[in-house]
What we know:
Elements: H1 2-20, E1 31-35, H2 43-51, H3 53-56, E2 61-65, H4 72-78, H5 88-96
Parallel strand pairs: 1-2
Helix pairs in contact: 1-2
Amino acid sequence: xxxxxxxxxYIIVAVAAIALGPVPELFAQSLKVPYAALSPTYSxxxxxxxxxxxxxxxxxxxxxxxxxxxxxxxxxxxGQVEIANMSSAPALMVWARSADLVAVGVTSNxxxxxxxxxxxxx
Length: 122
């Protein structure tokens, strides 16, 4: 579990650094990164912010609460946020409709959500 969290953190920091590129004037801008829930899925973002990793690498990252995960893709497409840590389904649906999105990595090789019920329900 700890290894997965570290891996997520490294991926998010790397993606943020790549997104900003080598152009110095981009470092003066704030990079808005959305989160849609208080869940472990978004914990690498909070850990990086609290530990000062973003500032250490010259990144001005602003974590922005968005009310639902389904709103993240429209927020990216409209330019309200620049990058996101999200599930793949909404991104794949709009990408299939020719939206200009790029997935740069995944943070887990396991399902993060499972629906469970009593054994009597089939």
